[in-house]
Amino acid sequence: MSNKLIVDAGQCSQAGKKEQNEDCCGIRLPEGMDLTHKGIVAVTADGVGSSEAGKEASEYCVQGFITDYFSTPMSWSVETAGERIIRSLNAWLYSQGQRRYASELNLASTLAVLIIKSTTAHLFHVGDSRIYLIRKHQIKQLTKDHRLIVDRNKTYLARAMGAEYEVNLEYTSLAIEEGDVFLLSTDGIHEFLEDTSIKELALAQNDLELAATSIVKAALSAGSDDNVTCQIIRVQQLPNQDDNEYYRQLTALPFPPPLDIGMDIDGYKIIREIHSSVTIQIYLVEDMNNGETVVIKTPSVNFEDDPAYIDRFMHEEWVGRRLNNPHVFKVCEVKRQRSYLYYVTEFLEGKPLSQWILDNPEPDLSEIRRIAEQIVKGLRAFHRKEMVHQDLKPENIMTDCHGDIKIIDFGCVQVSGLKEIHTPIHDEGTSGTANYIAPELFDGFEGTPKSDMYSLGIILYEMLSNGHFPYGTLNEAKKHQHYDYTSVRKYNLHVPIWMDGAVEKAVHPNPNNRYNSFSELLKDLSQPNPSLMKSHAPLIERNPVIFWQGLSILLLALNLFLLFTI
Fold first, then answer.
1. Strand, helix or coil for residue 254
2. 252 and 299: one domain?
3. How far apart, in whole angstroms, are the C-alpha atoms of residue 548 and residue 540?
4. What's the domain count of the chain?
5. Domain membership of residue 368 as a residue range
6. pLDDT digit string (tens) for 409-465?
7. Residue 150 above 70 pLDDT?
8. Using CA atoms, how far apart are residues 489 and 153, in angstroms rounded to an integer?
9. What's the CATH code of the domain at 254?
10. 61, 263, 399, 508 - which has most CB atoms within 10 Å?
11. What's the rounded mean pLDDT across residues 41-68?
């Protein structure tokens, strides 16, 4: 069985009885990495009849969506990519329509999008173009027509691309089966043909181009006076590979042999071993092509027959190659042919943040804020690509010789786009270190940026308290833990009460009660937020400005009293 999605497709679009075809449709069937990470895309759009530029609008929707979708990061989920593209397309259509035309519906169009990625179909829908599923000779309409019913004989289009500044789109997804047939149509088809007729014509012949054409002709024969467009996509094969095949693909490159000083591996000369453990070997090497000093990471032969380990090893390189940020460890592109399984990174001279904590038992608060800002900048690079680090801890944060911060270790990074791809490798549970992992991950929920915020809050607490934790030392049974926050001021009275409150909010066990953004956290680490002041704390700590103002007024009153009574 081949690990490949295979579909057949056909489409037909005609003006019909109208002078101009304001419908538009397009299908892209990619190969290679794009097929695996993006899937196949079919788009149908119908320029709104009352629009002065319906043809332009529908063409822009179809061509723009397909082009933009394959330009989005592979790490993005289909839902994120589709929604962002549609909102961007809608904003352009609306702004151009307002600028160039005077009618209420300017550059406007319906939109129906089908994306099949791995074993899932993703549907995006605005307007009254439809998407059907034909399975086991039964046809089902998957989309709901966005039409406003006035009376039995009169309806109006309720939603359209470009009609309003904010588009109200619908998204859904469903598991697919081999043999499924998806059909996209504009109202010139489905308003004149019964669903059963559409089904019979779609299944009548193997050539889907001819099948789509026959549906278009049938609609015109039935009296359709509109443009007519039909797309048909049939799922021939799903990428449901077995363990043996997946393992064969993972082990296409052999593990490297033991590497000694002076050895050459694909043009990299071994200088020395930096680190060796039961799971990985790290070597300092010279790139003999350009003389650059870099690092090679090789897998441990102890796991040569462990597909889950190999998958995680390759995952680290995949993630690292898609991140480019000064506060994220750089994984280098290997342009030459590889003879063995390994990956190349920058050479980083420095020490982990865990060592910095030991070296700074009485840390300067401004330095902690500077470190926090750099960690946040690195995390944002992950989150913009729909990645969650999930294993943020002092050992995975390096400080270089200039004191700058870099986030390392991508083995536990959750990637939304990759989670949509079927593999026989199953996640065996939460990875990472118990003291730093957000509670929701132990409860089986997916990681979010707020999960990384929790980890950052724990690290800030550890830095401020010289190695302590807000909830004590935790273990793998963390989901049964009682979360009673211990003020960081118990260990460090130099920490302002408002900064302690900011850390407490960041590490709240309920993600809904944490900050909504890292910007809010950084702001509250730098200046007092009255809402974070604890009522039992002295006024001088809760609000030092009011304290000194009040004291000044009291002293002035006392001086006046003494002046007039003596």
1. coil
2. yes
3. 8
4. 3
5. 351-534
6. 998 999 999 889 877 666 555 566 889 999 999 888 899 999 999 999 999 999 999
7. no
8. 72
9. 3.30.200.20
10. 61
11. 91
